[in-house]
Amino acid sequence: MQAFLIFAIGGFVAQLVDGSLGMAYGVTSTTILLTAGLTPALASASVHLAELGTSLASGLSHWKFGNVDWKMVLTLGVPGATGAFLGATALSNISTEAAEPWMSAVLLALGGYVLLRFAIRPLRRRQLSGVSPKLLAPLGLVAGFVDATGGGGWGPVATPTLLSTGKVEPRKVIGSVDTSEFLIAAAASLGFLASLSHQQLSWATVGALLLGGVVAAPLAAYLVRVVPMRLIGVGAGGLIVLTNARTLIKNFDVPGPSPAIIYAAIVVAWAVALAYTIRVILAERRELDEVDQNATEPVRH
């Protein structure tokens, strides 16, 4: 019962982060399961089976709050499902460890770009022209494969790439990526069930992750609806940088107190960016209130 509760809380936290920032459900959940002693294949399989429910609940919640671009969902999700199925069936024979530090370096750079773009030069609605299928289809294929083989990666690959284009509202990116994740979870689950028939899945673990994620999904979708889009961008960028910095430090086995110093520097810089962004948002709202107030004042002759 204690393990079930821990996994349920883990699923809740993972979905709260994923549903509001468009990433990190798989990374967070898989980390918890690996710590508990599951093999990488079983951990990834359990997470993707749970994501069948959490991504469906998240997608419906995002749709309800108007955060979904269905054209993007299909153009990104169908190739993503193909990549996820291939990745799931190949996980037992293919190692992504060699590519992990390189992928993390790319994602870290993208995260830094997203953070700075939204903190210093936020998107304007006139720039939101949409993303070409020529980018969405290959992006989905790669992100789906990475997600299945790494136990997570659909959001960390797809979300920062789409945010960095500056052509779609962050809430639409997050809602569409989260909604399309159902296709990826379904395809990966089919691949895992076919290739892991000789191994014993823990359905209690899957159920705990699912329960926590379903409870968190509506709250996360509401948060992404009401939180200003540039604040979401800064939050997502900082999370990407921190997550991938940890991966790089682990892969290169950075010695001594250096990791703690690096983490502290990232967190401080992220906090400063968030504080600055909040300050600018409040200032902009005060300006809008003043404009509205002046517009409603009667003209005196």
From TrEMBL:
<feature type="transmembrane region" description="Helical">
    <location>
        <begin position="203"/>
        <end position="224"/>
    </location>
</feature>
<feature type="transmembrane region" description="Helical">
    <location>
        <begin position="261"/>
        <end position="282"/>
    </location>
</feature>
<keyword id="KW-0472">Membrane</keyword>
<dbReference type="InterPro" id="IPR002781">
    <property type="entry name" value="TM_pro_TauE-like"/>
</dbReference>
<keyword id="KW-1003">Cell membrane</keyword>
<dbReference type="Pfam" id="PF01925">
    <property type="entry name" value="TauE"/>
</dbReference>
<keyword id="KW-1133">Transmembrane helix</keyword>
<feature type="transmembrane region" description="Helical">
    <location>
        <begin position="73"/>
        <end position="95"/>
    </location>
</feature>
<keyword id="KW-0812">Transmembrane</keyword>
<protein>
    <recommendedName>
        <fullName>Probable membrane transporter protein</fullName>
    </recommendedName>
</protein>
<comment type="similarity">
    <text>Belongs to the 4-toluene sulfonate uptake permease (TSUP) (TC 2.A.102) family.</text>
</comment>
<dbReference type="InterPro" id="IPR051598">
    <property type="entry name" value="TSUP/Inactive_protease-like"/>
</dbReference>
<dbReference type="GO" id="GO:0005886">
    <property type="term" value="C:plasma membrane"/>
</dbReference>
<feature type="transmembrane region" description="Helical">
    <location>
        <begin position="231"/>
        <end position="249"/>
    </location>
</feature>
<feature type="transmembrane region" description="Helical">
    <location>
        <begin position="101"/>
        <end position="120"/>
    </location>
</feature>
